[in-house]
Amino acid sequence: MDALDSLLHGFGTALTPVNLLWAACGVLLGTAIGVLPGIGPAMAVALLLPVTYGLDPVAAFIMFAGIYYGAMFGGSTTSILLNTPGESAAVVAAMEGNPMAKAGRGAQALAAAAVGHFAGGLIGTVLLVALAPMVADLAVDIGAPDYFALMVLAFIAVTSVLGSSRVRGLASLLVGLTIGLVGLDQMTGQQRLTFGFLQLADGVDVVIVAVGLFAIGEALWVAARLRRGAADPIPVGRPWLGRADLRRTWKAWLRGPFIGFPFGAIPAGGAEIPTFLSYVTEKRLSKHPDEWGKGAIEGVAGPESAASASAAGTLVSMLTLGLPTTAVAAVMLAAFQQYGIQPGPLLFEREPDLVWGLIASLFVGMVLLLALNLPLAPLWARLLRIPRPYLYAGIMFFAAVGAYAVGGEVIDLVILLVIGLVGFGMRRYGLPVLPAVIGVILGPAAEQQLRRALQISDGSATGLVNTPFAVTVYALIVLLLVWPLVGRLAGRGDRRRSRTTGGSAPGA
Asked: DSSP labels for 407-429?
């Protein structure tokens, strides 16, 4: 009851005209910046930190909340329409959203993403209010073996459901893991795959990898195919979701938050894992398996809802433990410290107006995001009417700007082009792109958690399965690997029985 009273007081803070204005500005700025390839929520919040120096802390963090959610939706917009994710959490949206856009259903994909963000953010924030202490206790108890098991689950899940074969999915994952090895070993300090270039000692930024594989690779692929003939403009389609779309998406909207929120709350790496797992879940449960890879709307609705709920979940450990689990949370932690505020267990007692005003602003930001972006879905979809040469030239320009903005080094542009050529080659030989991005994002963290778990157990492999949580995750992995084989064997048995029945019938 105290939490509800505090939340109502927070709404009194967030719903003042001035704070509403800052929330709306944050949503609009976040969406506009998120649309630019390579510039995600973390960079948007970091770039706008100086702008908030003159604001009081409550107004500043209300604006940051709007920027966060707006930038997430902006990244999904370019991911769906242009196959160019603005951030790693929007990678999965391209898998089904971009085929929908190419089929003239870009507005419907954007509407599904907008409602998914609203539903995920709404449910995730309710869970934040209700379950923050319990989830914080769970986060403290999770160790290195559990982290590694979660990441192995993400690797297996994404390679088993994408691409024309598991072998190609695994090959793509190995490409990403190799790119993730570039830089200094985090434990020994030795250089790996840097080829003598000091600029590579810090590794290859995941934004450059994602933009290179998706944006540059897609642009080169389209350019290579356009030489054979100009493509017709892609139709925009009607702007709203029909009854059939709603029947297929409402369950995905409701399932996504319960996948995304726990992963956002525990220190497991933000929205990447839950969006992939939500995609896998929706594909397994879908009644339209033939549409996956060609534009299944559930593949947009579920992951986007999970991503938004994960964003709410990251605030649990950041506010209650002072532990940032994503880049955005790290930037917001720096912003807290800029105002002389230290997140932790006592934050709710010392700064109740700030904390509950921030939480209430998440609800306000969700409503503003839906109100501002749902009517704009047809307008965003009209980007597809731009002639292909101009459109992809613009994509390459903004991709280069985004990659250069990451570190301000010319070598980043060279790396972007090289990775773009890798992305082009992967499309040419039928390798799915998503497992490679997964490998880059989670590979270094998985290696670090593996080595920590083995150090704790003095090199014994049993240290990887010495917790109930890890054993449960590995059981899920085995089920994920075995279930398709069981289905195939069952199918073969049915075919054999039908042949036997059919063969004996004439002689009966």
From this structure: H--HHHHHHHHHHHHHHHHHHHT
What residues does 192 pair with on adjacent strands?
A: 183
Given the structure tokens 């080094």, which residue do they identify? 409
Per-residue exposure over 236-246, b if at least 16 CB sit within 10 Å of its own CB, e if not: bbebebeeebe
CA dihedral 481, 486, 489, 491 (to 10 degrees): -110
d(CA 184, CA 194): 8
| Total number of residues shown for the chain | 508
The set of residues, in sequence order, having a beta carbon less than 8 Å from that of 218 and lying 6+ positions away, is: 82, 83, 84, 392, 395, 423, 427
Which tokens hold the place of 120? 């995920």
By C-alpha distance, which of 129, 114, 33, 85 is closest to 305? 114
Residue found under tokens 């879908």? 286
**Cα(271)–Cα(88) distance, integer angstroms:** 8
Instruction: Give the DSSP H/E element, type plus range, for residue 129.
Output: helix 106-141
For residue 373, how many other CB atoms are within 10 A of its CB?
27
Q: What sign does the CA torsion over 464, 465, 469, 471 have?
A: positive
DSSP 269-304: -TTHHHHHHHHHHHHHH-S-GGGTTT--THHHHHHH
Q: How many other CB atoms sit within 10 Å of the CB of residue 340?
A: 7
Instruction: Quickly tell me which residue has 């001035």 as its tokens.
Output: 18
Over residues 186-245, the pLDDT tens digits come to 777 788 887 777 777 777 877 678 778 877 887 788 777 765 544 455 555 555 677 777
The residues that bridge with 191 in the sheet, in sequence order, are: 184
At 310, give phi and psi (nearest 5°). -65, -35
pLDDT digits (tens, 9 = 90+) for 11-57: 887 788 888 888 888 888 877 766 665 556 666 666 666 666 677 77
Distance CA 435, CA 484 (A): 19
Closest CA to 262 of 194, 214, 309: 309
Per-domain residue ranges for the chain? 2-486
C-beta atoms surrounding 148 within 10 Å? 24
Cα–chain center distance at 353: 30
Q: Which residue, 152, 62, 85, is CA-closest to 368? A: 62
